[in-house]
Amino acid sequence: MGSINPVTREINFRIVYWGPALSGKTTNLLFMYNKIAAESKGTLVTLPTTTERTLFFDFFPMELGEIQGFRTRFHLYTVPGQDYYRASRKLIVNGVDGLVFVADSQASMNGDNVTSLRDLEDTLEKQGLALESVPTVFQYNKRDLEEIRELEVMEAELNNWAKPSYPAVATTGDGVVKTLRTVCQMVVENLEHKN
Fold first, then answer.
1. Looking at the domain covering 3-186, what would its CATH class be?
2. Is the pLDDT of residue 195 over 80?
3. Is the Cα dihedral 131, 63, 89, 138 positive or negative?
4. Counting C-beta atoms within 10 Å of the first and last residue's C-beta, which end of the chain has fewer, N or C?
5. What are the beta bridge partners of residue 41?
């Protein structure tokens, strides 16, 4: 629901990028970090793990404006996808306001996508949340590779909630901005509907 800081007159939202290992979560955040103007973003924090990196940065989206005189600030996080980082993922998703599920479009990654999504549902459930109630966008990444699954098939297998979804190529930025813009708008609308 966002945390309000009356001193700085900001509403802070937490958006978490979740998905299997090496699906493109970090690439999404790095692309956006490099695209956002320096005066609108904070420092990029990287916590290296064995094969992935957990990233964090925050930014003020100028186009979303203010909510009842408060500026919006979004804190973006990635989670490590490997199973042995499950405890880290639970901490990062705690207090989440919005989610981006980054699925790997390669046919060989189907099982990993399903497993990661089930882990997300389980993690949310333990925090008293359900995926259908959290603003979420599905991103089908790596659409530029060979031997990828059809979008319709991925949508049917993963997105049972008819959440917004986008094909993407995070390495070039295709679909990355749309994904982030959509989840930010959903998070703001969710807060406005609750007030």
1. alpha beta
2. no
3. positive
4. C
5. 59
The pLDDT tens digits of the residues spanning 152-177 come to 999 999 999 999 999 999 999 999 99
0.90 exceeded by the pTM?
A: no
Percent of the chain, pLDDT > 90?
A: 53
Give the separation between CA 88 and CA 79, rounded to whole angstroms.
8
Report pLDDT for 5: 72
For tokens 């005066």, what's the residue?
Answer: 39
**Residue 99, CA distances (Å) to 105, 139, 164 in order:** 18, 10, 11
Residue spans per domain, the chain: 3-186
Q: Is residue 145 helix, strand or coil?
A: coil
CB within 8 Å of 148: residues ≥ 6 apart: 105, 106, 107, 142
Could you tell me the two tokens for 34?
């490099």
